[in-house]
Amino acid sequence: MKIITYPEDILKQSCDPVTKFDQEFQDFVAELESFMRSQPGGIGIAAPQVGRMQRLCIVDLTGMTRGKKKKPVPNQGRLILVNPEITKWEGFELGREGCMSVPDYTGNVIRATRIELTAFDEFGNSHNYESEGYEARAIQHEADHLDGLLFLDRLVSRKTDLFKRKQK
Amino acid sequence: MRQWYMIALVGKDRAGIVAQITEALLGAGATLGETSMMRLGCNFTIMMMVGMDGDESKLCRVVEPVAKQLDLHFHVDEIEPGLHQHQTPDLRITVYGADRPGIVAQVTSVLAESEVNITDLDSQVGGDQEKPIYILMIEALSDRDVEEIEDALNRSTDGVNFRIEEIDTLIG
Hints:
The structure holds 2 protein chains of 2 kinds.
Chain A: H1 23-38, E1 44-46, E2 56-59, E3 65-66, E4 71-72, E5 79-90, E6 93-99, E7 102-111, E8 114-120, E9 126-132, H2 133-146, E10 155-156
Antiparallel strand pairs in A: 1-2, 2-5, 3-4, 5-8, 6-7, 7-10, 8-9
Chain B: E1 2-12, H1 17-27, E2 31-40, E3 43-53, H2 56-70, E4 73-79, E5 91-98, H3 103-113, E6 117-127, E7 132-141, H4 146-156, E8 160-166, E9 169-171
């Protein structure tokens, strides 16, 4: 397994829904998860990033920290998201993103701060999720891959200032 | 052999500056690296990395007629290319206050003493002409705690508001 990098065309294509939750698919999910965890950062990956054009992404922010004080990031652990559909978006927040498929570049992207979604797991069981903050950002980033969207499609100017101002 | 140059151009802003300069470079077989082009006051400024086979005088001969036509001053230096060496900033510092001499010097001196490495700085003058305000947006790299840098800025700056926040970069 290897990461496909832009400008490879398939990263800009929509993926097909998963219809077979068979052993072959479950083996692929396990392999993708293992591959994700072997990558630097390793908090999320989408199937098209390794060339499989199916609507599957994995997010796991377990153990992830933010900032110099290494504050834990609230998260729900391992999320296998098959045919995910984000059904509700609330709030917006500017944050910096990069992507394994776009090496050596990071940029500012606006994402919803809180989302609701439905998805199947690798066995075909349906789940409803609510997510916020960094985990919600990761889910939105990975789900975008399934529609052929990269964070490059959502870049905003480095001068965009949506940050709440406060006086010292 | 391909050499890399930094070209700086500045002049009164008008439509078409970027197109005419870059078309002239393309016509001469040059390629662009990273660039920064923006309006500062009523001027348009360009800093761009240009790769070209040939020496500095060849590049100057390409740029000079267009710059002259557009009434732009320009300067060329040979540089190392250094592409694909991005540093991802981990701090965003916003500073604003009533405009007065010394805001940038004061703030950046404190940051330098705190070993904060600025990767990007934009400043603009806003407000009205009678009461102008100065706004600085800085992105930087630092190993120091935010509180430590805040304390240093609190001790050494007067009359400005500032805010420091950490930038976490999600790699998906």
